[in-house]
């Protein structure tokens, strides 16, 4: 009985240690942004980028959230990073300056 409990406990620990899904975090961040819950959006989008730093869409949405919270320098940094990831995106290149 103790070994079954130990196996179950180990399974719960491993599940809790699994790598976050950046696409799910991006989706939640996008939903928070649409609901004008900017601080929550910043948390989710930043978490997505910690998992996948090359996720340009998360950087663009994070820049939008930063702009909504009057963090212009944070927004500019994210737009520049996103533009580096998407060099063919003319609109993004213009937005990044």
Describe the fold and architecture.
With 97 residues, the chain is mostly helical. It is built from 6 helices and no strands. It has helices at 2-16, 22-34, 38-51, 56-68, 72-85, 90-96. It is globular, with a radius of gyration of 18 Å. The mean pLDDT is 89.
Quickly give the structural class: mainly alpha
Number of helices: 6
**H-E order:** HHHHHH
Determine the fraction of residues in helical runs and give it as a percent range.
Answer: over 70%
Q: How many extended strands?
A: 0
User: Could you describe the largest sheet, including whether it forms a barrel?
Assistant: none
Topology (elements, then pairings):
Elements: H1 2-16, H2 22-34, H3 38-51, H4 56-68, H5 72-85, H6 90-96
Helix pairs in contact: 2-3, 2-4, 3-4, 4-5, 5-6
Gist of the model:
This protein has 97 residues and is mostly helical.
Give the tags.
mainly alpha, 97 residues, 6 helices, globular, single chain
């Amino acid at each position: 009985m103790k070994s079954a409990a130990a196996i179950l406990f180990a399974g719960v620990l491993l599940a809790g240690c699994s790598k976050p899904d950046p696409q799910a975090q991006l989706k939640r961040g996008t939903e928070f942004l649409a609901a004008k819950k900017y601080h929550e959006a910043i948390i989710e989008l930043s978490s997505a980028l910690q998992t996948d730093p090359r996720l340009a869409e998360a950087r663009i949405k994070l820049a939008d959230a930063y702009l909504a919270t009057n963090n212009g320098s944070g927004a500019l940094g994210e737009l520049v990073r996103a533009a580096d990831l998407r060099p063919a995106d003319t609109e993004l290149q213009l937005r990044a300056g």
